[in-house]
Amino acid sequence: MNFSLYIARRYLFSKSSNNAINIITIIAAIGVIVGSFSLFIVLSGFSGLKDFSLQFTNVFDSDLKVYPAKGKTISFSETEREKIRAIEGVESYSEIIEERIFIHYKGKNHIAYIKGVDENYEKVTKIDSILFYGEWFIPDEHEVVVGLSIIAKLSLGVRDYGDLLEIYVPRPGTGQINVLDPSGAFNRETVIVSGVYQVNEDLDGKYVFSDFDFARQLLSLEEDQISSLELKLAPKASEEEVRREIEELFEDKVILKNRIQQNDALYKMLNTENIAVYLIFTLVLIIALFNVIGSIIIMILDKKGNIKTLYNMGASLKEIRRIFFFQGVLMTVLGGIFGIVIGIVAVALHLKYNLIYITATLPYPAKLEVINMTIVFFTISFLGIIASRIASSRVREKLVI
Questions:
Q1: Which residues contact 142 (CB under 8 A, 6 or more apart)?
Q2: Which range marks the domain in which residue 104 is found?
Q3: Are the C-beta atoms of residues 185 and 177 closer than 8 Å to each other?
Q4: What is the spatial distance between Cα 216 and Cα 201, in angstroms, rounded to a whole number?
Q5: Number of C-alpha atoms within 13 angstroms, CB side, residue 317?
Q6: 28 and 113 housed in the same domain
Q7: How much is the pTM?
Q8: φ, ψ for residue 251 (rounded to 5)?
Q9: Which of 32, 92, 196, 272 could make a disulfide contact with 335, Cβ separation 3.0–4.6 Å?
């Protein structure tokens, strides 16, 4: 065994004759354990919270979405439909019409978006996962599915044939609006609410789902005009290859976005928060490692006689410094591993028994990930090496002469 490592191990695990030094060493070790435990718990909790925040993207957003590069609509002919079906990797696609609308019910108003979807939409998006109450609309029956927030705001009833929901959209064209009769500037339709969807608070107040033909008629669009295409890719499909073929098909007149790009602002916010949380708790670890530096320096002063003996027996100054460097590294690495193990046990118990709740029925989301264990281990190891190097540098020639 390496001479310096052997001595360092003996110093770390053997009791000092001075009880104060033993207490300081224990406090330093506990600080490392608590710091690594806290960092791991926070990263695991944030990983679970991130998955919880993004779970709606897996059920609401498509694998790939085609937007118009300019304007609000894409020209989508029968020839292009056949070419889309022929693209290898596209399992299914749905044509979408989407536009801002004004809805009115019993004197209450709300601004939303109508989302007209065709019969293939359920193959692209898991409708069953978002439907909260009632049934999905029946095509050609003037039925819509609205969000839970819209239901609450307008006090809507499902299948209420006595009071219909009114939908207004501006008519296309130019000219002035008649102030005496502004209703002439809008297309108006009445619909029945057949069901309620629930995804999250923002989306629940944003969309009104309708039949594709109903939305096209309401917006006075041509038969070959659509707002977007939502695509479901085959499990082993190459996204880059599908992108390339679609861009060639539409001749660069469209913009393609995958699930992450459709929610890029949310992903950026979550990643920024993750980095901020990591840096804050790394700062806590740095503060805890000051105890390690102090513990090693006190140990150096306590072992001054032993250091002189080792030096007189032929040990170099570099080897003596390495003793205390290894002692600090061992303390931080072993303390970090111990803290991670405690953190793994705590997270596993929470996942099994739901120890902490956000609400009365919702347990705090957490997730055990190898990447979090790796991040904590390398963070504590890197900081421990720096702290040990700083402390061991206090062994100088003046001390041994």
A1: 189, 190, 191, 192, 214
A2: 63-260
A3: yes
A4: 27
A5: 9
A6: no
A7: 0.82
A8: 55, 50
A9: 32
Residues 226 and 285 in one domain: no
Q: Could you tell me the sign of the dihedral formed by the alpha carbons of 209, 214, 216, 219, in that order?
A: negative
Cβ atoms < 10 Å from Cβ of 134: 17
Question: How many Å apart are CA 43 and CA 34, to the nearest integer?
Answer: 14
CA distances from 358 to 45, 361, 372 (A): 12, 8, 22
Q: What values do phi and psi take at 33, rounded to 5?
A: -60, -50
Which domain-ending residue is among 244, 260, 276? Answer: 260
Say what percent of the chain tops pLDDT 70.
96
394 is written with which tokens? 């206090």
Give tens-digit pLDDT for 260-306. 999 988 899 999 999 999 999 999 899 989 999 999 988 888 888 88
> Are 140 and 289 members of one domain?
no
- Residues 96, 146, single domain; the answer is yes
> 26-64, pLDDT tens digit by residue?
999 999 999 999 999 999 999 998 888 888 787 889 999
Q: How many residues does the chain have?
A: 401
Which tokens sit at 352? 């099994």
CA-based R_g, the chain, Å = 32
